Amino acid sequence: MAAIAKRQPTDLAKQTFEYAPAPESIDHVKIEPRYGLFIGGKMVAAHSKKRFPTINPATEQKLSEVVEADEVDVDHAVKAADKAFDSWSAISPSRRARYIFRISRILQERARELAVVETMDGGKPIKESRDVDIPLAAAHFFYYAGWADKLEWAFPNRKPRPLGVAGQVIPWNFPLLMLAWKIAPALAAGNTVVLKPAETTPLSALLFADICMQAELPPGVVNIVTGGGKTGSLVVTHPGVKKVAFTGSTEVGKLIQRSLAGTGKRLTLELGGKAANIVFDDAPLDAAVEGIVNGIYFNQGHVCCAGSRLLVQESIAEPLLEKLKLRLGTLRLGDPLDKNTDIGAINSKAQLEKIEELVESGVQEGAEIFQPECKLPERGYWFPPTLFTNVSQSYRIAREEIFGPVLSVLTFRTPAEAVEKANNTPYGLSAGVWTDKGSRILWMAERMRAGVVWANTFNRFDPTSPFGGYKESGFGREGGRHGLLPYLELV
Amino acid sequence: MAPAKSGANGRVEVRKTYKLFIGGEFVRSESGRAYRFDGNVNVPRGSRKDLRDAVRGARGAVAGWAARTAMNRGQILYRAAEMLDGRRAQFIELLGSGRGAHKEVDDAVEAFVWYAGWTDKLAQVIGGTNPVAGPYFNFTIPEPTGVVGVVAPEEPALVGLVRRVAPALCGGNALVVLAPEVNPLPALTLAEVLATSDLPAGVVNVISGFRKELLPWLASHMDVNAIDVAGCTADEVTEIEKAAADNVKRVVKHAPGEMSPYLITAFMEMKTVWHPVGV
């Protein structure tokens, strides 16, 4: 290991081509200096006088100002949704489907604008927002649009009924995609929605409000209120909300679950993770390296299902880590709007501080840190791709969700040990397995206590594919036929 | 209650000591306590430690039970129906010998038979393959949630419990059952049926005792993955839901009489597996 550490992995990076800047143009995007709330089918002035800026984490420049919605605003939104529910749940399902199809089409038509806004507001590389977030969001609406008039075929021997107003709170890592995961199945099932986007990434949801207007979606079917945790809490605890869907940290998920005790509200939670990405000695190493990189450095590691614990079979640990470290040296960190950027900005100052704190704990606890030579821009929030070896299972970096570009490497000898270590976490969202042996893939997949298992791939998503956690990673599924269930009562 | 009395012919009956069922063994409460039920029956008053042992037993058993083939689980549930049917007379007597008692035992047997037939059909009805937009094979299968707490209803004491236990077992979970404080004997006797049905030790554990001494610990136990609250009052449900948040426990509320595959999946997780397709 020492020999590897002494080599300069970035030598290779220096030999590769220099990339000329290739910034995505932003002249076609119009961000308003301030936004109201989307209630009852139009943008309205808020009751709350409190506003807060949303900034570009890559430049620390203010992009716009949004409202911190208060109790009165949330009440207006829920009432608008409640009013719209009667007609939305009663119109012919094929008409409902057509509105949702329209939304999907408009998302495709305005894809580039949405991708740019997503990248400016959240810091993720444009190639990810352009190639992953926005296409998947559009596909999600398209998929669930088709369910709207086929619900009676989805659950044998049961009659599906919508629940009412859904209160939905989403995170900042995939703002528009998480919006799609929440709103598309809710609308298809005949519910109406009050959605609160994350505090640091409200803009794509506000653009989505414009898309709802463009689609002539009936007023009140979708309502969007901006704000922080307090606003989110007002949404989920409002007595008019019949169903709560939350994606975010396990800590907040537990608070929500507790706050809904005794209310009879339906709840689904998609929470944190600490996924194991397991590489066996027969895995094709180059493919595995790409999978590891995609698993933990995709979206700066701001991914609940990120492969943040690499479990590598002892016999191949050395060559694998050597390749991995070389690969880290070639990752391009910088302007998220540059089409060549691999690693963008950390979403917020608070998140950067959390990552720094956990990385520091790793060093303190005795893990060996590796970071490629990597020049960080002067302004904005950045963190270089980081890898820890000599990690014990008890270290915080092996147990806690870091939600940053930080990989903890552990080793194992036998498949049984890999299973034991992989499952040794209160989380259970995802897992990765790399091996050439088919029977071993299925053996491992059976034993992973996780809702999604990627074998010889990682971080793949699709609207037809159910996603969600075991254990403290939450309950309920999003995507596929299973994703309808949380939004229906089966009579 | 008939079993506690002497027979008419003057025969001195051999009475049964009711016990907890933990990890496949019939044991007294570690606390040594009992409470009197129905005049003359001593019912073990299980403690927090008994509950802990039961959860440990269930946790130890769940992987093996979940790994049994669906067919094998079906055979074992069917054997539970056979064992219960073989003890019809005993259960009818326990349930008061009326017409209702006959029907209740019949319904309980039927519940085991019905769910026995679901073990190897559920994955086809509930799971499936997903046509993702890319070169991947992708499928979703239901898997057991893990250790499930079941708060047995007082009424109907036998079929009410069997209709909670059978679907959870069908899915491959291991259970910790809290017998009702009032009318605990059908639940404790059901343990004897399950003990002779080839269920691996620890897959079902039954604890009797005082609700207020046991329920809060079951609800907040960090190694219990789900809890069925069929036998709880509304206030108890609220408290359970608060405590359940400690480890994001699934709280399952279904109508008591319901029989449905959705009750099986209430105690299951959907797992989705991806693999690339290529040469």
**What is the CA-CA span between the terminal residues of chain B?**
71 Å
- Spell out the helices and strands of chain B N to C: EEEEHHHHHEEEHEHEHEHEHE
Number of strands of chain A: 19
Query: Whole-number average pLDDT of chain B?
Result: 95
How much helicity do the residues of chain A have?
Answer: 25-40%
> How is the biggest beta sheet of chain B arranged?
5 strands, parallel
Derived from helix and strand composition plus strand pairing, the structural class of chain B reads alpha/beta
Strand content of chain A: 15-25%
Description of the molecule:
The complex is a heterodimer of chains A (491) and B (279). Chain A is α/β, with parallel strands linked by helices. Chain A is built from 16 helices and 19 strands. The N and C termini of chain A lie far apart (61 Å). Chain B is an alpha/beta fold and 279 residues long. Chain B has ten helices and twelve strands. Chain B is globular and about 80 Å long. The mean pLDDT of chain B is 95. Chains A and B meet through helix 10, helix 16, strand 17 and strand 18 of A and strand 6, helix 9 and strand 12 of B. Strand 17 (452-455) of chain A pairs parallel with strand 12 (268-276) of chain B.
Topology diagram in text:
The complex is a heterodimer of chains A (491) and B (279).
Chain A: H1 2-6, H2 10-15, E1 37-39, E2 42-44, E3 51-56, E4 61-67, H3 71-90, H4 93-109, H5 111-122, H6 126-147, E5 160-162, E6 165-169, H7 175-188, E7 192-196, H8 203-214, E8 222-224, H9 229-237, E9 241-247, H10 250-259, E10 266-270, E11 276-279, H11 285-297, E12 309-313, H12 317-329, H13 349-365, E13 368-370, E14 386-389, H14 396-399, E15 406-412, H15 415-423, E16 430-434, H16 438-447, E17 452-455, E18 474-475, E19 488-490
Parallel strand pairs in A: 6-7, 6-9, 7-8, 9-10, 11-12, 11-16, 12-15, 14-15, 16-17
Antiparallel strand pairs in A: 1-2, 3-4, 5-19, 10-18, 13-14
Helix pairs in contact in A: 4-6, 5-6, 6-7, 11-12
Chain B: E1 20-22, E2 25-27, E3 34-37, E4 41-44, H1 48-67, H2 70-86, H3 88-94, H4 99-116, H5 122-126, E5 128-129, E6 136-144, E7 147-151, H6 159-170, E8 174-178, H7 185-195, E9 204-207, H8 211-220, E10 226-228, H9 234-244, E11 250-252, H10 261-265, E12 268-276
Parallel strand pairs in B: 7-8, 7-10, 8-9, 10-11
Antiparallel strand pairs in B: 1-2, 3-4, 5-6, 6-12
Helix pairs in contact in B: 2-4, 3-4, 4-6, 8-9
